[in-house]
Amino acid sequence: MIAKGIMLGPDQPMILHLLDIEPASKSLEAVKMELQDSAFPLLQGVIATTNADEACKDVNIAILIGGFARKEGMERKDVMSKNAVIYKAQASALERYASDDCKVLVVANPANTNALILKEFAPSIPEENITCLTRLDHNRAQARLAEKLSVPVSSVKNVIVWGNHSSTQYPDTNHATVSTKTGDKPVKELVADQEWLKNEFIEEVQERGAAIIRARRLSSALSAASAACDHIHDWFIGTPKGNWVSMGVCSDGSYGIPPGLVYSFPVICEKGSWKIVQGLSIDGFSREKMDDSARELAEEKALAYSCLNV
Ligand code: LMR
């Protein structure tokens, strides 16, 4: 998708730097060979390496998809401490070698907290350049509403995913609309069953990642890759007028979310910058859900920092 120009547009040439761990070096080399054999017009080079410093050298965009997946019998703290170590190392490599304008998207779980660790250990990367992926959840919410209402997915806009990329995330439909022949209509008006919106819908989006894992015994792949492309595309190229998307970004205190957390907010993007959408009304139901997710992130942060002894 990246090499075909889906992420950065049809006129943006690129060099891909691919990083993997030593045991995967053969497969990594094969990916490089296949990329070359595809003769993508935009692809000006491929660097495949198991050395993080080499991989990070002069990169303008870093998409971090590597992490330690939870295995049977592992405690949450064990997973967190493994990922904390990985993200500390990647942060140091980016800090030393990436381009000054490098923008970072963390995909690997726990994505919000991995991004926070990265921010801690790559202090020269401006904090607004460090983000995590919640676009997958945003896209899932949009798709589920389109299915429920039997409308094209492209007609649904302005859902919001607040919080953590975990089962405490809050997919909020209070401001979402559907474009119809007679103008934009609020989703809340079109979905007759408000109980469905408050219960089943939220749970389905929150649990969709787990449902994919149950179905294919592996984490989401295509939809996660596509969402990562959407995230970078909109960040660099901009969100369409009147539309917002969800991104995990460093909280500035907006909507009462404590600064110092990487939290998913509705954002609009223009020319490589994002801005949190301000002034949205938040009802009591939303407030509670948004705070629950913030609380979970604060706990994850404390756990991560205890693993790193900072
Ligand atoms: C997803 O949302 O599909 C993944 O983050 C799930 C996971 O735990 O890998």
Automatic annotation (TrEMBL):
The active site is at H165. Its EC number is 1.1.1.37. NAD(+) binds at D20, N83, V107, A108, N109. GO terms for molecular function: L-malate dehydrogenase (NAD+) activity. Keywords: NAD, Oxidoreductase, Tricarboxylic acid cycle. The keyword 4Fe-4S does not apply. GO terms for biological process: malate metabolic process; tricarboxylic acid cycle. NCBIfam families: MalateDH-SF1, MDH_euk_cyt, PRK05442.1. This is Malate dehydrogenase. It comes from Thlaspi arvense (Field penny-cress).
